[in-house]
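Please predict the structure of the following assembly.
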Amino acid sequence: MSGCQCKSGFFALRDCGQPPVATCAACQRAMCHTHSAVESQFTQCRDCWARDQQQAAGADPRLNRTNETGYGDDWAYNYRHRYYAAGYSPVYTGRHYHSYYDQYDARSFDKRGNDFDDGSEDARAGFGDS
Amino acid sequence: MLQTFRLLGQLSPAERDTIVSGQFAGDFTPDALLDQMRTLATFDASNDKTRGRFAGLIAICVVAAIAALIMHNIAPLVLYALATLSGIAAIALFVMRRRLVKVDISNNFREVALPFLALIKQDMDADQTVTVRIDLRSPTDPKKRRGTSQPYQHGAYTKIVDTTYSDAWFHGSAQLADGSKLRWDVTDEVCESQRTKRSRSNKSKTKTRHLKRSTIAVALSVANKVYGVNKGLASSRHKVAVQEGAKRRTIKLTRKLKSKSLDPIDPTVLVDAVSSAYKRVAAPAGSAA
């Protein structure tokens, strides 16, 4: 997969695939502008930023009511990480497996007979029309 | 405090009309919806803080005026002036506070609807639309009153009057990126009980108590081509029903909650209802499974 390797969605995860603009300093995945965490000065993907934030703040699966009016995308990814960590296994509708999401136990993330996107190569290379 | 009036001045005529009408409704793209909601939520958060501060200042002014009148013999000229100024300040603050009360938005809007829709946005493509209808008025707005009981006695209470309100405050539907359709409804039934009793000193005291029953209903319609549905999964929290169709199956969940305050429900309850519906869908046939 040559596009952004982050997954979009909350209840159901899907591939992003937007053109990447950078590589996450933490997980080395290619990330698009949308999946770059604003609060990390665009050096980390939103998933890694959320994981770092949770380690700093402690696990709290409930919504943060002190966030009175913001509720931006960074907040949503932060909440998504906490919600998954609290036990929700999202369903995955995409085609590019990445081991990054294994810890969430996402349903349908098995590698059987499909693309395996470990970030090192384009899993579909060689199968397209030339 | 002045920032609230500045924010009020910065609201567009359409946003002011929305607040005055008490209805936030329409079809929006996710980004447009959240932009509009954040503007109103920012104003409302500031409004709530300012009204709280005004209430404190009004109390201080009233106490200062009364104290100055009681102690006027000490320095009549100064204390009469202080009483007058405190009285004028209290009236001015009261008028400003009343103005802010008229444009108050129910906390349901920014504490439940906004975070929930910020999460729904994640499951939508940027060009898809979400339809919402959010009631911005207080749950005990007179227009939501459904009935008032005849006064009755119970235990130590000499007079109890129950007033019921029906507040269907949050309705919405969205087409999601995975092809599913999500609908949700949140309705609060509120019983406001005014209870009067006589104290030992024979004074009449009235307390107001609230009992709120919230009904959260979610319907997730999934395409048969995309998802299977696990109908056997039980839920201890939700009442679940699966409606079969030729092209789509609809998972319907309902949950009822009771509360003794008018505070907004925890938005996690609404998120849990949708996630509970998604727990019932089987992995898509064409995905990595």
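Chain A touches chain B at residues 8-12, 14, 61-63, 65, 67-73, 75-76, 79-80, 83, 88-97, 107-112, 114-115 (CB under 8 Å). The two ends of chain A are 17 Å apart (CA to CA).
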